[in-house]
Amino acid sequence: DLIYEADFTQPLNVAMEDDLFDGDKRVRLPEGKEWVFEGPGRAWTDGGQLHLETFKPEAAGHVVLWNTRAFPANFLLEFGMSPKDSNCGLNILFFCARSRDGGSVFDLELPKRAGEFKNYHSGALNNYHISYWACDAVGGHRRTANLRKNFGFYLPTCGPDHIAGHGAGPHRVRLLKVGGKIRLETRDALSVAFDDDGATYGPIWGDGYIGLRQMGHTHRASYSHFKVWKVGQ
């Protein structure tokens, strides 16, 4: 069953992470907002697409956009991603994300993340993440899509990157998560397959939040759609 479809024809209903804080203390929940943007950049909609951009492409200007909805443990996600340059950038998908005590990624006791990578993989969150497209800042292709399990930055598996060097897109990304079974397709080809046994790297993560991450050298990318289906066990 389709349970969520973002409407990118409308202005983006987004909160900036800084607006949820008073100094270093998180004091507000993103109530009434559909998205939360973290890091030095901006998110907006135009032409029926979502756009994410960093203000610091030459530095550590990494950005993350979270959907504020907690999605079920078993789901299919699909989105289309168009990079500024398919030979320069690295994008990550966070999923099944929660605070380490099982709460929301927006709980008031959580520190600011600000797009800094360590705050997502070895900070106050549990999640899976996949770097589904990975090139360095000078056009080198890593050639692998890496799946990591966090907290702890474990690398259980990797697979081929089907997006690097393949042009503007939109490139279709599909993620299936059923229990411990995780399958990622990019451009209609299997990229990553992992069966989490719930023991080797800790328990299987269940329901939680989904986030889109762009490293600084991605600079800018757009997203044609973002849909989530609930699936059976």
Q: Which properties best describe this structure?
A:
single chain; 8-stranded mixed β-sheet; 8-stranded antiparallel β-sheet; mainly beta; Jelly Rolls; 1 helix; 233 residues; 48% strand
**Main sheet characteristics:** 8 strands, antiparallel
Q: How far do the termini sit from each other?
A: 13 Å
CATH architecture designation: Sandwich
Rg, nearest Å: 16 Å
- What is the number of beta strands? 18
Fill in the CATH topology. Jelly Rolls
**Uncertain segments:** none
Shape: globular
Strand content: over 45%
Level-1 CATH class name: Mainly Beta
Question: Could you give the order of the helices and strands?
Answer: EEEEEEEEEEHEEEEEEEE
Helicity, in percent?
under 10%
Helix-strand category: mainly beta
Q: How would you describe what is shown here?
A:
It is a single chain. This protein is an all-beta fold. The chain has a single domain (2-230), classed as Jelly Rolls, CATH 2.60.120.200. The chain is 2% helix and 48% strand. The protein has 1 helix and 18 strands. The strands form 3 sheets. Strands 1, 6, 7, 9, 14, 15, 16 and 18 form an 8-stranded antiparallel beta sheet that branches. An 8-stranded mixed beta sheet has the order 2-5-8-17-10-11-12-13. The model has no long low-confidence stretch (mean pLDDT 97).
Summarize the structure.
The protein is an all-beta fold and 233 residues long.
Secondary structure elements and pairings:
Elements: E1 2-5, E2 14-16, E3 21-22, E4 25-26, E5 35-38, E6 41-46, E7 49-54, E8 63-67, E9 75-83, E10 90-99, H1 118-121, E11 125-134, E12 144-150, E13 154-160, E14 171-178, E15 181-186, E16 189-195, E17 209-214, E18 220-230
Parallel strand pairs: 2-5
Antiparallel strand pairs: 1-18, 3-4, 5-8, 6-7, 7-18, 8-17, 9-14, 9-18, 10-11, 10-17, 11-12, 12-13, 14-15, 15-16
